[in-house]
Amino acid sequence: MNKTVNQKAWFFVLPVLLLVAFNAFIPLMTVVNYSVQETFGDNTFFWAGVIWFQDVLHSERFHAALGRQLTFTFTILAIEIPLGVAIALCMPRRGIWVPVCLVTMALPLLIPWNVVGAIWNIFALPDIGLLGRTLNGLGFDYNFTRQPGDAWFTLIAMDVWHWTSLVVLLAYAGLVSIPDAFYQAARIDGASSWAIFRYIQLPKMKRVLTIAVLLRFMDSFNIYTEPSVLTGGGPGNSTTLLSIDLVKVALGQFDLGPAAAMSLIYFLIILAMSWLFYTLMMRNEDQ
Amino acid sequence: MAKITLSDLRHSYAARPIRDDDWALKHLDVEWRDGGAYALLGPSGCGKTTLLNIISGLLRPSHGRVLFDDRDVTDLPPDQRHIAQVFQFPVIYDTMTVGQNLAFPLRNRGVDEATVKARVAEIGEMLELSGMLDKRAKNLTADGKQKISLGRGLVREDVNVIMFDEPLTVIDPHLKWQLRSKLKELHQRVRRTMIYVTHDQTEALTFADQVVVMNMGEVVQIGTPVDLFERPQHTFVGHFIGSPGMNVVPCGIAGGQATVAGHTIPVANPVAAGDVRGRIEMGVRPEFIAFDPGGLPVDIVKVSDAGRFRIVDTRLGDHSVKVLVDEGTEIPADGARIVLRTDNTRLYADGWMIGAGRDAGRGDAGQGDVA
C-alpha cells in the first residue's frame, strides 16, 4: 500500500499554535524585548543588554520584596495545608451533612478577590470593623493600617480564610476515594488513629496534596488583588509583596526595562520552585 | 483458635425492619468447629459479606450473639477478637515494604522486635515472599498483594479465624488456581479456622471441607461438597451447584412416588400425598440420568457439546429435563428413553427436600450429612 505524503495535517495544529502564540508567547516575548532595552519615552528604544537584570538582582528593594513574599507564602502554606487536612479529616464521609459542609467550604472560593480584600479591610478597621473593634475592646492595641505586625496578621488571616477551603476540598476528595476495606483492615490490624492517618490517609492524599501545595504556592506567590485592596503594601513597605512592588515599578514609575527584567526573574523563580516542589513530593512514587 | 458459634443471629441494615425483605440475614444458628475450612457460597446479595462482617466485628448484629469458644464477643471491636480478614481488593500499606506490611499488626500490638523479625521471616517463607521482604509493597502484582493481606493475618499467633471475602476477584485467571491451592495447603499447615466467602462454586468446593450455601439471607444447606452435589437439601442448592444445575420438575405424588406427565418415578424419599403441603417438585441432577431403552419416553430438543461430556436437552411431557452423557455415548435419534437413578431422585416441597427437616440443613456443620 502506498502512503500518500502530504503536509496538510499541520493545519490541524494551527489554531492551537495561534492561540498559544497570542495568549502566551507573544506577550512574554514583548516583556523579554523590554527587559533588554532602555527608553526615554517617545517610543524610542536603545539596546541595554543585561543591565536591568543585574540591577534587579542586586537591588535591595527587590531582595526585601522577595523576602516578604517568601515569608508570606511559606507562612500561609504552613497554616493552610495542615489546617485544610485537619478540617477534611473532621468532615463526614456520608450522610446529609456532606453537601452542607461542601457548600459551606466552597463559599469563600466563590467571592471575587477584590471583594475579599474589601470585606477584610472593613472587617479589620480598628474603629468600626467587627474584628478591629473587638480586638481593641479586648485590650489589644490593634491597628492594621499603622502597625506592620497587625497588617501581616490581617493579611495572613485573610488568605487563610479565603484559601484553606481549596485545600480542604482537595484533601477531602483524596479521603473519600479510600475504600472502606482499608479502614476495616487497619482496625483488624489493630492500628491506632495516628497509624491510620500516617499509613493510609496521608499516602492516599499525597497526590491531591501535591496539587494543593503547588496551587497554593503559585497563587500565593502571585497574589496581588487582596493585599493591594487590604493594605496597599503598607504601612510603609511592610506588606509590599513582589507583585505589588512590580506594579509600582511598572505602572507607578513606568520603568519598563527594570519592570520587565523583574517580571522575568519573578516568573523564573515561580517556575523553578514549582518544579522543585513537584520533584520533591513525587520523589518516591516510582521506586 | 476457636470454635465459632452464631446463635439466633439476625441482621438488618434498616433501623426498624418491618418486611421480611428488610432482613439481610434472616435467622442463623450455626456452629463451626475449630480448625475447619468453611466456604460461604451464594449469589450476590445473599448476606455472605454481612455475615462475615458480623463475625469479624465490623458489624454488630441486630439480634443474636457471636461466640468464640464459649466467650461472647458480640460487643467486641475487631482488633480484640483476634481475627484476620482478607478483602476482595488487596489492602496493603503503600508506603511500607512487604516486610513492614507483614510486621504491622505485630508492631501495633507492641510485640518485641526479635519476635516480629522471626515471625515475618517465617510467614514470608510460607507465602513465598522471602525474596521481596525489602521491596515496596505497592509495586507487587495483585496476587502478591493478596498474599501480603493474608500474611498480615497469619503473622499473629493468636488469630482465631481467618476470613476471606472473595479474595480472588482481582487475580488473573491463571494465578487463581495457584493461589487457591496455596490457600488449601496453608490451611492444612496452620490448621486455623478459615472462612471463605465466594459466589464461585469451584472456589468454594475446592477450598472447603464444609460449604455453607446461602440464599436470600438464610442458610439453605451446610455440607461437604459431596453432600451438596449428591444430596441437595433445597432446590436452590441443586440449581446453584453443578453445571448444568439440577433438573427441578413440578410433579404430583401417587403411592409415595413422584408422577410426571402420567409416569410414576420412584424417588429416594417417598412420602404419602397427605403428609405434604405446598409446591411439590422432583429434583434430579443431569449426571444421574441415563438413556435406557427400558425408561421413560422423551423428546430430544438439543445436544450441546461441553468438552468431555455432552448436555442433552430433552422434554418429558411438558417439562425440560437435561441429561449429561459422556463424550462418546451414542444418543438415540428416535424414541429416546431415560432412566432416573432412584437414589438421587428426590421430592421437594416449597423448595425444601421432603423428609430432611429444615433444621438438619442449618444445624451443626459436622452433622450436615443427612442422607
Automatic annotation (TrEMBL), chain A:
It comes from the Bacteria. The keyword Transport applies. The chain crosses the membrane at residues 12-36, 70-89, 96-123, 160-178, 208-225, 259-281. It holds the Pfam family BPD_transp_1. One of its GO terms (cellular component) is plasma membrane. Keywords: Membrane, Transmembrane, Transmembrane helix, Transport. SUPFAM superfamilies: MetI-like. InterPro entries: MetI-like (IPR000515), MetI-like_sf (IPR035906), Sugar_ABC_transporter (IPR052730). One of its GO terms (biological process) is transmembrane transport. It is a multi-pass membrane protein. The keyword Transport applies. It is found in: Cell membrane. Residues 66-277 form the ABC transmembrane type-1 domain. Belongs to the binding-protein-dependent transport system permease family. PANTHER family: GLUCOSE IMPORT SYSTEM PERMEASE PROTEIN GLCT, TREHALOSE TRANSPORT SYSTEM PERMEASE PROTEIN SUGA. This is ABC transporter permease subunit. It comes from Roseospira navarrensis.
TrEMBL record, chain B:
One of its GO terms (cellular component) is ATP-binding cassette (ABC) transporter complex, substrate-binding subunit-containing. Keywords: ATP-binding, Cell membrane, Membrane, Nucleotide-binding, Transport. The keyword ATP-binding applies. InterPro entries: AAA+_ATPase, ABC_transporter-like_ATP-bd, ABC_transpr_FbpC, ABC_transpr_MalK/UgpC-like, Mo/tungstate-bd_C_term_dom, OB_MalK-like, P-loop_NTPase. Residues 4-241 form the ABC transporter domain. GO terms for molecular function: ABC-type ferric iron transporter activity; ATP binding; ATP hydrolysis activity. CDD domains: ABC_Carb_Solutes_like. It holds the Pfam family OB_MalK. Belongs to the ABC transporter superfamily. PANTHER family: ABC TRANSPORTER ATP-BINDING PROTEIN, MALTODEXTRIN IMPORT ATP-BINDING PROTEIN MSMX. This is ATP-binding cassette domain-containing protein.
